[in-house]
Amino acid sequence: MRRSRRPQLSNLPRPRLPRRNREVLSDEEIVPWSIGDRIGLAAAWFSGLLLCAIAASIVLYMLIRGLQYVQLSALFEHPVVQSTTTITGTGGGYLDPIEGTLILTALGTLIALPIGVGIAVWLSEYARPAGLARAVESGVEIVAGTPTIVLAIFGLLIFSKSAFGFLSFTAEGGAVFGRSFFIAGMMMSVIALPLIVGATREALQSIPAHVREASYALGKDKISTIRRVLLPASRKGIATGTTLGMGRIAGDTAIVILLLGATLTLEKQGTTPVVSTLKGTGSTLTSYVYGNSPAGEGNSPAKAYAAAFILLMIVILMNFVVDLMSRRRSDPWAR
Amino acid sequence: MRRRFGLQKAGPRNSSDQRAELLLGALACVVLALIAGMIIFVFQKAWPSFSHNGLDWFNPFAGGNVDDQLTAIFESPGNPSQYVFTMHAWPLLYATALITICSVVIGVGFALLSAMFIVEFAPDALRRVLEPVVRLLAAVPSVIYGLIGILVLVPFVGNHIISQGAKDSVAGVVTLSGPSVGVGILILTVMITPIMIAIVVDALRAVPVGWREGSVSLGVNRWRAMWTVTVRAARPAIVAAAVLATARALGEAIMLSMVTGSVGFAPNPLDGIIYFVEPARPLAATIVDNSEGLSVPPFADTLYAFAAVLLVSAAFLSFGGWYIRRHLRRYTLSPI
Predict the structure, then answer these.
(1) Residues of A in contact with B178 (CB under 8 A)
(2) How near does any CA of chain B get to the CA of A44, in Å?
(3) How confident is the model at residue B261 (pLDDT cuts 50, 70, 90)?
(4) pLDDT in tens, B192-211
(5) Nearest to residue A92, comparing CAs of A101, A104, A82, A106?
(6) Which residues of chain A have pLDDT under 50?
(7) How far apart are CA A106 and CA A275, in angstroms?
(8) Which of A16, B6, B89, B222 has the greatest CB tally within 10 Å of its CB?
(9) 3-state percent breakdown (helix, strand, coil) of chain A, nearest 5
């Protein structure tokens, strides 16, 4: 309606507005920046740029060293074993450490995921009695703060008991070795657990109440609401938590050194195809790096740099995946 | 106030639902029991070491060389009645506290400034770079930091920073060759700062923009508005970030065992500037370095005593953080 009258008006000459100074005051004109404010701002800029510089130097340095020492053929070669009891990685490739990292990460995640999601669902949707819920919450928090080395020697204490002999190698005298992929994977799942619980809980709590009510109104009971509505809706949070947990597992060294037996190659125990590997010992990229650094027995920096480069690439890849996931539309219930 | 537990307690109930609740509750109980079991087991194993030494375990003036004591424990006779337990762990406790506190203090300031930069002052292009960079730095495994430390920083410190005169001046006491408290603090700061930045950035963003705009409209400049309004409102999250970072720093074993020299030595502040290039070894690194001795019972008990101290510190830390946050929350609307 209004538009139809416009053509007549448009023929008139445009009125010239009086020219006023409409500019917004700049920062300095509001309150003069005191010397303390200037120093603070300079410090903020400095630390931001320093952060960039540190990250760039670490990534570039590892990249240069990696390209210098990584040989593609070595990715598919078994390491040469000098001794079966210690890491002495002076020959061969990194196939076994890479396999070890993948197996251990997969195993730890497989154990942690259902337990973590279960606990998060219970904490967010049931949580009765409240005292127990509070205890479980602080328990998970304590685990998140526990050093991995403490978890590692605790694992060694528990799984060396003869009751757990089926999980690892048992020596002639009946002494249980207490070190295997099974055992390391279980303790690794403990590190990933708080991350998965936290992310899943947050995702569940961000789902608006009306979504649950709509499901109840359609006659669904609580557990089917959780299974059919809430868990699919919080898939993204679960995936983020899981990926963070996988990064933590892939990057941990203390548990690997203590609980994976620190043999350079995958040493199988028994003859059953998959179980034999899981009952056996091995190494991961982290323990390989540690063993080949001057602090370990191997002391061949070239190998350590190469393995560290591969590890860094795996971590960057996981980071990238998390980034992609968080870019997707975050709230399925937003209109 | 937001309810923390049982977001939706209501809802239709039937037998399958009750079974599911029981099952999930049982799972939570099992995990809780495992955690309690861990604490009890570790303390039970650690008890002989504490009970044999009494308060000397923690006494700064008890004296003795920790490494010699560890060797004596390792070589103690096989007869359980003759086990050696003498352990005066002060140098290890001191190294742990020194490295953790220094890197957390430096890290908190650095993380706060960086987070303010990311949230408020950085140009858009730089901000888009910085956020993934922080996430990446937080995810780099500690062994890679340790590797860079031991192959780059430690030789640099040993060859260029420490003068021959400084080496000679403490030659009778300790060898200065590069691995040092200072390198440990530096790398640990780089390790834990990104974790704090990520948390603080989220918290600063969660403070309502209107609060800051209000103060800017009253004529306060951008820095002052950020510092006096937004940062104050985000204090609980800053405490939470510091607690998390301290827990990581306390438990860092591999990296510190690589760069701090693995010598049970208490750096002496009276040595002046050399203080920061003297070697040491924190508790967690001691456990890693000596893990092959776990088969010797008294030695294992000593290592579990170290682990028990770490566990207690971690628990106190999370309790202390909770307490401080509870008090700070009165002054803010921050959700954390």
Answers:
(1) none
(2) 5
(3) confident
(4) 999 999 999 988 988 888 88
(5) A82
(6) 1-5, 83-89, 335
(7) 14
(8) B89
(9) 70, 0, 30
CB-count burial class (<10 Å; 0-12, 13-18, 19+) for A284: buried
Rounded Cα distance between A205 and B8, Å, is 9
In 3-state terms, what secondary structure has residue B123?
Answer: coil
At a CB cut-off of 8 Å and minimum separation 6, what does A63 contact? A309
Angle at which helix A301-327 crosses helix A285-292, to 10 degrees, equals: 150
Q: What is the dihedral of CA B323, B325, B329, B333, to 10 degrees?
A: -150
Helices B15-53, B297-328: inter-axial angle, 10-degree rounding: 120
Distance from the Cα of B284 to chain A's closest Cα (Å) equals 7
Q: Which of residues 74-113 of A touch B (CB under 8 A)?
A: none
Distance CA B201, CA B195 (A): 10
Facing residue for B16 by CB, picked from A46, A221, A254: A221
> If you count them, how many residues does chain B have?
336
Mean pLDDT, residues B130-150 taken together: 89
| A143 in contact with chain B, both atoms CB, cutoff 8 A | yes
Instruction: Give ipTM to 2 decimals.
Output: 0.85
Give, for A152, the enclosing helix (H) or strand (E).
Answer: helix A148-159
How far is it, in rounded angstroms, from Cα A205 to Cα A124?
Answer: 7
| B294/A153 Cβ within 8 A | yes
pLDDT of residue B11: 62
Across the interface, of A142, A219, A225, the residue whose CB is closest to B35 is A142
